[in-house]
Amino acid sequence: MDKKYKIMLTTFSSVPFLMVLGNSMLIPEFPKLKAALDINQFQVGLFITLFSASAGISIPFLGYLSDRIGRKKIIIPSLFLYGLGGLIAGIASVILKENAYPVILGSRIIQGIGGAGTYPIVIALVGDIFTSNQRSEALGIIESANGLGKILSPILGAAIALISWYALFFSYAILAIPIIIAMWLLTEEPDDNTKEQTLKEYLNNIKEIFKARGIPLVFSLLGGMVVLFLLFGLLSYLSDILETKYNIEGLIKGLVIAIPIFFMSTVSYFTGVFLKKEEKYFRHVLSLGLIVNAIILSSLSFVDNLYLYMGLISILGLGSGLVLPTVNTLITSSSSSEQRGGISSLYGSVRFIGVALGPPTFSLLHRISQKAMFFGAAGIGLISSILIFLFLDEDKIMSVDEDNQEDASDTED
Predict the structure, then answer these.
(1) Which of 71, 84, 359, 413 is the most exposed place for a label (fewest CB within 10 A)?
(2) Number of other residues whose CB lies within 10 A of the CB of residue 300
(3) What is the mean pLDDT of each run of 10 residues along the chain (413 residues)?
(4) Which residues lie closer than 8 Å to 353 by C-beta, 6 or more apart?
(5) Residue 385: its pLDDT value, please?
(6) Number of structural domains in the chain
(7) pTM score
(8) C-alpha to C-alpha distance for 360 and 339, rounded to whole angstroms
(9) Vertex 243, ends 237 and 246: CA angle to 5°?
């Protein structure tokens, strides 16, 4: 890989790093946001929900537009929107103070739309630029940046919040500026990188995939949505009790929240390596990951000791790390290269919906009781695991004889 492509790849890698901060950097500071804005746990969870829901809705449309007009013409304005949303939230927080909540909610919708046009489109652009031999390496580097962002974001959020709670929002705009400039000046895309595909054809491609892959594809999508629903719902709750119950704040709290994410990212890598050699175990690995999460969630309702609590949550990160790379490969292997953009966009939307539903659902269940929250979430994980084990046929999904697995990606969040 020559110098020009290394520079472009470095620039591309900064985009998923920034996008991951959208949710994960705020979660450790939920208690500060609640106190400053005089809101409850459900209301603060909407900061995650509205960002993720708007991203989930926007991804298919932006994916289609990127095919029509080019990737950079989507990525750069999307980065601008992402930063603008943060700037609006920051200014509103300074001027309106405790009355800024409605404006911040609106700004999170803007940020979510911007986030939808960043990482998923960068993945497509990397696939356009790099040849099959280089593509696997390039996507691996992009995925590493995504994982690094996940691990560092709680720590970075805690550090920035030491300045002020509203500094978190300004940081999105500050971090977006150099990435916008780099994307504009240091990257390029192939000249023939647009397709004269109508919206009807785009939707028909997705329809044809579901006709061919059917129920197994539905349950693959379900696995990705459920595991992120459980993870982000639990992280939202964890952020609250670390301060209220265990008196852990600041950087230490950010480090604690990063622990399960570190386990998830590490296990994701090794799961991908394992599945590359043992393709017949996709269904088993996916079901196992969800069963692990269900067992851990039900166990948490009986635990008070902080160290045991964090040990169990780390194992939940392990379970999530089994699920995500498995689903990534199943989804990207379910379609031909011409259809992959549509199904990948749909997968990205489903993942964001899982993230969006997690915090408010956990909050509502917790109003009933802690046991209702943990056992309810565990039940969702267990039922999903059983359905996936019974109905997911990896041979039916992975019947497209192309280099699809090289395009496996993780768009969360």
Answers:
(1) 84
(2) 23
(3) 84 90 89 94 94 92 84 94 97 95 97 91 80 66 78 90 94 96 90 71 77 83 94 92 90 90 86 77 92 96 91 93 86 67 79 92 94 97 95 75 44 54
(4) 52, 53, 56, 225
(5) 96
(6) 1
(7) 0.84
(8) 34
(9) 100
Question: How confident is the model at residue 298, as a pLDDT?
Answer: 96
Under a CB-based contact definition with an 8 Å cutoff, are residues 316 and 292 in contact?
A: yes
Residue 238 maps to a domain = yes
Region of 195 please: left (phi>0), alpha (psi -120 to 50) or beta: beta
* Cα-to-chain-centroid distance, residue 366: 24
Helices (H) and strands (E) counted in the chain, each on its own, are 15, 0
d(C-alpha 185, C-alpha 49), whole Å = 34
pLDDT value at position 386? 95
135, 402 in Cβ contact below 8 A? no
The first and second tokens of residue 136, run together, are 């696997």
Cα dihedral value 123, 124, 128, 134, nearest 10:
30
Decide if 269 is inside a domain. yes
In a domain, 138, yes or no: yes
Task: Residue 235: give its domain's CATH number.
Answer: 1.20.1250.20
412 inside domain: no
